């Protein structure tokens, strides 16, 4: 309801536009200087459609997603905001996984991707894994040495078996995820029908 002191020289619409732009620039300055300065978390714009274009034109930080929730945030409950944000993120996740699956099939044919445990282990030791795919809930009993890349698969989970797997029941997939995290590889924990292969684990390599 605030009116500019120059309202007698400009239309109400012009004044409203100027006030909105000032507000959006303040928001952008705050976001750029504090919130996103050290945080790369994606930002979702929540505003009415008529305001979205102006804010996006003014916005100077790169983490603002192209998708937004085109509603007045004041009219939405916390649950509605969460559900709207999750719909956007799930849509982006699905599109990303589709592209990665296509890429995996192509790269595998050229030796730049594999679901072979020995090859993945060696690539991790060489810090050559760009992305690691792990099937949710599927264990791969055995051990993995991140230094040498050695993998010892042990289908028998009995800690007293001849391979001397200890009672901690070590898991190859878990050990590989830990190694991948240390080299800033992307980790994708997927349902079985989302995996690019049926082996429970697969990887994209940075180079051949």
Report on the structure:
This protein has helices at 12-35, 49-58, 78-109, 117-125, 172-182; strands spanning 43-46, 64-69, 113-114, 129-135, 142-144, 151-153, 186-190, 201-205. Helix 1 crosses helix 2 (49-58). It is elongated, with a radius of gyration of 25 Å. Mean pLDDT is 89; it is low at 164-168. The protein is an alpha/beta fold and 208 residues long. Helices cover 41% and strands 17% of the residues. The strands form 3 sheets. Strands 3-8-4-7 form a 4-stranded mixed beta sheet. It is built from 5 helices and 8 strands, in the order αβαβαβαβββαββ.
How would you briefly describe this protein structure?
This protein is of the alpha/beta class and 208 residues long. The protein has 5 helices and 8 strands, in the order αβαβαβαβββαββ. 41% of the residues lie in helices and 17% in strands.
Task: Set down the secondary structure blueprint.
Blueprint: H1 12-35, E1 43-46, H2 49-58, E2 64-69, H3 78-109, E3 113-114, H4 117-125, E4 129-135, E5 142-144, E6 151-153, H5 172-182, E7 186-190, E8 201-205
Parallel strand pairs: 1-2, 4-7
Antiparallel strand pairs: 3-8, 4-8, 5-6
């Amino acid at each position: 309801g605030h009116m500019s002191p120059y309202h007698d020289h400009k239309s109400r619409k012009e004044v409203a536009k100027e006030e909105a732009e000032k507000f959006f620039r303040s928001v952008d300055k705050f976001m750029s200087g504090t919130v996103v300065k050290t945080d790369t978390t994606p930002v979702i714009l929540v505003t009415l459609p008529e305001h979205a274009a102006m804010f996006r034109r003014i916005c100077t930080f790169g983490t603002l997603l192209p998708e937004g929730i085109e509603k007045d945030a004041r009219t939405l409950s916390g649950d509605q905001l969460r559900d709207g944000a999750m719909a956007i993120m799930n849509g982006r996740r699905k599109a990303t996984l589709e592209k990665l699956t296509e890429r995996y099939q192509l790269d595998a044919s050229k030796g730049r991707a594999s679901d072979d445990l020995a090859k993945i282990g060696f690539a991790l030791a060489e810090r050559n894994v760009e992305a690691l795919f792990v099937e949710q809930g599927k264990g791969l009993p055995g051990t993995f040495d991140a230094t040498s890349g050695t993998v010892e698969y042990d289908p028998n989970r009995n800690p007293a078996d001849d391979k001397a797997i200890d009672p901690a029941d070590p898991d190859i997939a878990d050990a590989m995820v830990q190694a991948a995290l240390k080299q800033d590889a992307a980790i994708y924990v997927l349902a079985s029908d989302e995996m690019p292969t049926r082996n429970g684990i697969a990887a994209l390599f940075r180079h051949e």
